[in-house]
Amino acid sequence: MSRSRQGSIVSYRPDIKVLDCTLRDGGLVNNFYFTDEFVKDLYLTNLKAGIDYMEFGYKASQEIFDPNKFGKWKFCREQDIRSIVGDNKTDMKISVMADVGRTDYKKDIPNRKDSVVDMIRVATYINTIPAAIEMLEDAKNKGYETTVNIMAVSKVNDQDLESGLELLAQSSADIIYVVDSFGAFYPEQMERLCYKYLDIAAKYNKKLGIHAHNNQQLAFANTIEALSLGVSYLDATVSGMGRGAGNCYMELLLGFLRNPRYNKVAVMNFVEKHIRKLKEEGAVWGYDIPYLLTGILNTHPSSAIRFIQENRTDYAMFYQELIDNAL
Amino acid sequence: MSRSRQGSIVSYRPDIKVLDCTLRDGGLVNNFYFTDEFVKDLYLTNLKAGIDYMEFGYKASQEIFDPNKFGKWKFCREQDIRSIVGDNKTDMKISVMADVGRTDYKKDIPNRKDSVVDMIRVATYINTIPAAIEMLEDAKNKGYETTVNIMAVSKVNDQDLESGLELLAQSSADIIYVVDSFGAFYPEQMERLCYKYLDIAAKYNKKLGIHAHNNQQLAFANTIEALSLGVSYLDATVSGMGRGAGNCYMELLLGFLRNPRYNKVAVMNFVEKHIRKLKEEGAVWGYDIPYLLTGILNTHPSSAIRFIQENRTDYAMFYQELIDNAL
Hints:
- Two copies of one chain form a homodimer.
- Chain A is α/β, with parallel strands linked by helices.
- The first copy, chain A, has two domains: 17-280, Aldolase class I (TIM Barrel), CATH 3.20.20.70; 289-326, no CATH class.
- The first copy, chain A, is 43% helix and 13% strand.
- In chain A, helix 6 (158-169) runs parallel beside helix 7, helix 7 (187-204) packs parallel to helix 8 and helix 11 packs parallel to helix 13 (315-326).
- The two termini of chain A are 36 Å apart.
- At the A-B interface, helix 7, helix 8, helix 9, helix 10 and helix 11 of A face helix 7, helix 8, helix 9, helix 10 and helix 11 of B.
């Protein structure tokens, strides 16, 4: 793998794919209670915008999570997706995510020929990679495209990460994602991380993806950094909607990409109709000082989410609490 | 000039200097009507935070701009600065900015020995560089440190830019600023631009600075990109306060820098006390779709500021208007 920028800013790389995970990561903001109108409009928007993959949500276990306490996109039942997309006779593919240990994938994920879903995305921590590989093999045997995210790699030492990547590279995963779960990485660090993934991807002929968080207003910067180095699957959400500081903004990403298939105006129209309303109704996400602090300290945003929910503004005290608990 | 990253993320470079331009760029949001309490608290905050330079505002001509229509920091009279800082017996230096053609610098800028101001920052367009050089020589002769910003370089062709930089490099300017006036540059482009400035800076023994805008949520990313390449004077504002999409957030920048002289908590305390209040009272700045669009189209944010002031949300129509007018 040559260590240089791939492509130029004026042209485009046909290997680039954009994945909209607004419902999935955004669902963590509102417990997946999206209106059908929102979901249908987002689907139509993504078609117009040229999005390559739309993620509808999680395949969460209904044994573990009470279906009465979450919107339907936490579970992504086949009939619920079909109520939006019909048979999805389009060239946009559909993905769902399944977390290791929180899914009854053997039972809840049908064969691909019986589903409108095209891709299963598996999320794992470093210590559950063997379980993730079982899920990936199950999905591959059922006929799906597969991706795998190793979460929280900013807390994993280099040797363990390399061992984990080797295991995943030998699995049926089609695409391995570089994930900055805590919004902790600066672009220089993202560059080093990407080269580690790119070396393994080249060796085993895998593709790579990037999923970034906006704790330090770097989700977009890290996404285009990764893409310029050769990463090709790019996650983004409308207006960055996602847990805590949120994700890479789809508007920014489509503004950057030069492939004429992408249409940022469609996404802006969706923002105008739906996102302002969602925020006015009380959904809260996006860069804020508490997320900056959890990002700097390389820790989960849950305490920052609580801080904001409690309408606290004593940032200095919160920082001390984080240092006491996190380091 | 070697083309590689300078320093590492774990250590720090002692040549780095941080300049707070909240009053100056932020003054463009509220016509410089800051309360004395705000300005005094910001001064004390910057002292605690280890900021190297604090910019109080502009040295604008009172012949051109009616002092009854702007707060006092548009003019930065000596007695107004002294009412905040006394004789400024601290190690934080004070700067003011003067725009070519909008200042009576010969009359309004006293000798440095009669002033608490340490540095005069000259802002110019490519076509007024000879006038900027006259101002720089005047300031240098009066005893000041000097910087020069060439604004709107994203609209200047390479040959003109190189000619302009050569002229400035032969002037008395101590520091030449790389400025992304329209928030149009991606980090890859910022890298190329910085190398152009770095080559000339090395040849003439000048230092470089960076002043970024947040139209594409890249002000912080571009600032640390420039710094990692060897740029050493870093502009930022509290919570990114500045015209349109605003600037690099001081909180993010101090979170990144490893020099123990910098204290981000002091800035967070200022945000808690003053910035939320300022926003609640109606001051508007920060990333939004209209600024993304002017950034992408490499044009001045004035039309986007108007769009937002008029409470418009028809982004698609605005984009068409921009294309009609800007290209």
